Amino acid sequence: MEIIEKLNSRLLDQSSRKCKLETEVYRQRAWMYAQMEGAVSVLSDMQADKSYVYKSKAAIELGLSMKENPSEIDSIWEEEIIKKIHPDDRVKKYIHELRFYEMMDAMDPELRADYSVLSTIRMKDENDEYRLVKHRMFYIYSPDNGKLRFALCLYQMALEGALSSDSAFMIINMAKGEIVVKDKLNYQNILSKRELEILKYVGEGYASKEIAGFLSISINTVSRHRQNILEKLKVKNSVQAFKDSFY
Q1: pTM of this prediction?
Q2: What is the layout of strands, in order, in the sheet containing 130-141?
Q3: At 88, phi and psi to the nearest 5?
Q4: Cα–Cα distance between 176 and 107 in angstroms, integer?
């Protein structure tokens, strides 16, 4: 999946100069978030390519295993959680996180701590039914090499009846209480019917060969459609591009 490859190439871009931030300090913070906010908290360590998942009772609502708390994963991707996200929201989440990374990468390092991602996504619960979940993401950068070291993600059950039934993706300035970027992408207006079909399968993790079989088309045709999708949803490496893409 190209969007994952792009994210990995950026998030796991290691510097020869190692970050000296203490992992245990940030693990404690992730645990505190989970307990105080009734959330599932995921701390991803970009230097070690590892994640730590801390669970509250919200994990039970989402049908997540509570056997190990915290649980350690040898990847920055929390697959047990990600696979519960609605396929459409999963793809949007990846695209939005890539935009957030590009925005932060182009920003004055002194300002980065003011920004976070705030999303409302659909996730399957313990009854295999979709429910709205509030997702927040924060980046922690290394003072030693300037690279992204940790990402902290929080998954919290949305208040019943307090939000619309639609998913939403925003980048916010927490210090000013402002929405900096609001995702208004409507894929149905941007992509063709066939591209939407392929995007759905890509979001579910299927390879091009499998998608070709589902749709009775050639692998080359799938590859061409996938390339068209990437071009239509192109991520530009400048702050202005975010405004151009969303407003």
Answers
A1: 0.73
A2: 71-73, 50-54, 40-45, 148-157, 130-141, 115-124, 168-173, 178-182
A3: -65, -45
A4: 16
